[in-house]
Amino acid sequence: MKLVYVDNNATTQVDASVLEEMLPYFREYYGNPSSLHTFGRQVAGKIDISRERVADLLGASASEIVFTSCGTESNNNAIHSSLEANPQKKHVVITKVEHPAVLNLCRYFGKNGYEVTELRVDENGMLDQNELRESIRENTAIVSIMFANNETGIIFPIEEIGKIVKEKGVLFHCDAVQAIGKIPINLRNSYIDLLSLSGHKLHASKGIGVLYIRKGVRVNPLIIGGHQESNRRSGTENVPAIIGLGKACELAKESLEDYQKRVKGLRDTLEHGIKASISNVKINGEKSSRLPNTSNIAFEYVEGEAILLLLDMAGIAASSGSACTTGSTEPSHVLQAMGAPPSQSRGAIRFSLSRYNSDDEIRYILEKLPPIIKKLQDLSPVFEDSQLST
Ligand code: PLP
Questions:
Q1: CATH architecture of 17-251
Q2: What is the rounded CA–CA span in Å between residue 317 and residue 124?
Q3: Atom 9 (ligand 1): residue with closest C-alpha?
C-alpha cells in the first residue's frame, strides 16, 4: 500500500545526512564531553561546532544556545527559570492557544500561588495587542507567546508583540518549536529573550531541544547537577542528537527559501483541490499569515477520528490536532478559542507537510479524501438535517 506522511507538525523523518553525521557518535566517539581524556576531548569540540550551526540558523551567538532534551523541556525551563529568578513577581501572561507544554505548566503555576492571564484570540487566531498591553503589570514575571500555532499554523506578529512586552520591561519567551526551519527567524535584532526549539520537528532526532537565552538575561537553572551547558542545564549531553541537530539546522538554513516556495505550493494545491471537490469545508485561519506547511481543515458534520481512521486505511497519516492531545475526546482548545462551533471543530483535520512530500502524494490525497468525506457525510444524520434546512 502507498504510504503518505502528512503529520510533520507531530514529528519528522530524520534526514539521511543527519543520521549519517550522528552514527559515529554511537560507535567511535562515545566519550563523555566532560572527560579530560582523548575520548572526551574528541566530542567536546564537536558539540561546540553544533552549537554554532544552531546559532547560525537562529541569528544568535553560540554562547546563547543551551541544549535540552525536547521542546517541552525548553518551555518548562524558560518559564520555571524566569519565575525562580524573579520570586517577587507572581503574574504570567500567555495565550489561550499555547501548546500544552506552556498552557498546562502555567495552569499548574496558577494553582500554586501565581496569577495567569490567558489572552483570547479572535476567529482568525489573532490576539488583541491592546489587551496584551493592558494585561502586563508591575508584577508580571514573564510573557510567553508562541511564534506559530502547531494546530493551525497561524503565525503571531511576534516582533510587534515583543515590542509591547519590552516597552513594559518584562521578559519575553517565545515557543518557536513549529516555526524554526519553516520561516526565517533572526534573533539578532529581536525582542525575544528566551526561545524554544525542538529537534524532531526539523528532521533531527527525538530527545534534543534548545533553549535560546539572550546574553544578559538572568535565569535560574531548572535542572541542577553537574554544571553542563555552562550551569544552565545539567545532565550528560546527548551527543549524537546534538551533532544531528547541528546538521539539521544547517540543512534547514540551506533549504529555507525553497521550502517556503515548494512546500507552500503543495499545501495550496491540497487546499484548492479540497475546496473544489468537497462541500461544507472551512480552512481554519485561512485569512491569517500561516506556516507554509500547515493546513487545518474543518469538514463539517463529520467526526475527525472517523476521517483519520479511513485516511489511515488508505495509507495517509494526518492528525486531528496536537499529537500530545490525541486520545482526548475534547474538541481542540485552539479551535475552541477561535470560536469554532462543535460541528466544525469535531471534524477538523491537520495536514502538515515537509520538504519530503511530493506532487504525486498530494494528488493521491486528493483522490482518496473526497469519497471518504462523502461517505461520512452521507452517514451523518446531522449533515442530512443541515442540508434540508438550507
Ligand atoms: N511547542 C509546540 C508549539 C509544539 O508543537 C510542540 C510539539 O508538538 C512542543 C512545544 C513540544 O515539543 P517536544 O515534542 O519536543 O516536547
A1: 3-Layer(aba) Sandwich (3.40)
A2: 26
A3: 71
